[in-house]
UniProtKB/TrEMBL annotation:
Keyword Thylakoid included in the entry's annotation: no
Protein name: Glycosyltransferase, group 1 family protein
Species annotation: Paraprevotella xylaniphila YIT 11841
GO function terms (MF aspect): glycosyltransferase activity
Zinc found in the keyword field: no
Domain Glycosyl transferase family positions: 204-357
InterPro entries, per the entry: Glyco_trans_1 (IPR001296)
Length: 382
């Protein structure tokens, strides 16, 4: 079977990049499929996560990011030119590959693939949640005009683009139910565990960990505000692992809140497993997600989790009070109280941590990937 993934790039250390790499590796190495990854803007950069030698990687060399900063009219014209070029490139490549399945990750290729009649079945998988463009525009505080454009694009995505695909895949049951009101051919297949810790963690380290891109989506500004309510009472450290456009802003906020002595910012690392194993609590204050990879990873390392009730992910992963806590959106005091409770109660940390590790075993690759195999076979048979 020939499978093609289309995605923006693979050189960033993000959850989507990791999961696409892992799924592609599994399909190629375990199932023996012929797997292709077509990126939009790799530009010769090495993939951050290792790819199997069996995978064929093709880059289109399209710089959509270069449109940022241009006037609205110039940006629209250049985007149209790039879209036409992208469609021409994809059409030629896909007609040459003659794939059985082509998978869009819901980026620029999503509006193009259904119009390419190369004989393949088309699957659209979303790595965020329904309404992501509206959430993005709100989180990044776009201008009124730009917000309106994003809202219009969101409506086009939901009512025009998504229905054109043979199957639409969400990451969570919560999000599937939200889409089902308008899309009948929707299914939920979650991310797979990137690693599985088999050792016991004592959760004695006085360290709390958060991981993610340093931008408005991940909500680390909210986390720092919460931490300022807690840290002065305990001899603990908050470690934030990530890089991004808000790095300096977050450093300024850490200084303004007088939590420099209790807070550490470090860049992304390929040794995140070791960082989890040297921590005792995982926290997440994102404004929106799909199914947070880092949450699954942290829980597989026996870390109890505390998260806001953002869309989507926490409700599928966390059973409140059993393997972690879900706090009402923007309720800083409740979040601070739950964090203080776990800091002061090692027995509760251990109990929740063991429950956390047990509860994420259902996300193992050997459980999740057969769902993809079955989906591919069902679609091809139709």
């Amino acid at each position: 079977m020939k499978i093609v993934y289309c995605c923006p790039q693979l050189f960033h250390p993000g959850g989507m990049e990791r999961i696409i790499s892992m799924k592609a590796n599994y399909l190629a190495d375990v199932y023996g499929y012929e797997v292709f990854i077509i990126t939009e803007k790799q530009f010769g950069n090495k993939p951050f996560y290792e790819l199997s030698d069996k995978i064929k990687h093709i880059d289109l060399g399209l710089d959509y990011d270069g449109l940022t900063g241009s006037s609205l009219l110039k940006s629209v014209i250049n985007r149209i030119v790039l879209k036409r070029r992208q469609k021409r490139f994809l059409k030629n490549i896909l007609e040459d590959i003659k794939a059985d399945i082509v998978i869009s990750t819901f980026f620029s290729e999503a509006s193009i693939l259904p119009s390419i009649h190369d004989g393949s079945r088309k699957i659209l998988e979303i790595h965020f949640c329904r309404g992501v463009k509206m959430m993005y525009a709100k989180a990044f505080r776009f201008s009124f005009v730009k917000k309106c454009l994003y809202y219009i694009q969101q409506s086009i995505d939901e009512h025009i683009i998504v229905p054109k695909y043979d199957r639409f895949i969400t990451l969570t049951e919560e999000d599937k139910q939200r889409w089902r009101t308008i899309i009948p051919n929707v299914a939920a297949i979650p991310n797979i565990l990137t690693f599985n810790n088999t050792g016991l963690v004592g959760l004695e380290a006085k360290q709390i960990i958060a991981v993610g891109r340093l931008d408005a989506q991940k909500g680390f500004d909210r986390l720092i505000n919460i931490w300022a309510k807690v840290c002065c009472h305990f001899d603990w450290n908050l470690k934030i692992v990530g890089a991004g456009c808000d790095h300096d802003k977050l450093q300024d906020l850490i200084k303004a809140k007088n939590v420099e002595a209790y807070t550490t910012l470090i860049p992304p690392t390929q040794f995140i497993y070791e960082e989890f194993c040297s921590s005792s609590i995982f926290v997440m204050t994102s404004r929106y997600e799909g199914l947070p990879m880092v949450m699954l990873e942290a829980m597989s390392c026996s870390l109890p989790c505390i998260a806001y009730d953002f869309k989507c992910g926490p409700r599928d992963i966390i059973t409140n009070g059993y393997n972690g806590f879900i706090c009402k959106e923007d309720d800083e005091q409740d979040f601070a109280n739950k964090l203080s409770l776990l800091i002061t109660n090692q027995e509760l940390r251990l109990k929740m941590g063991l429950n956390a590790r047990a509860s994420v075993q259902k996300y193992k690759a050997e459980i999740i990937m057969p769902k993809w195999k079955k989906l591919f076979e069902e679609i091809i048979e139709k």
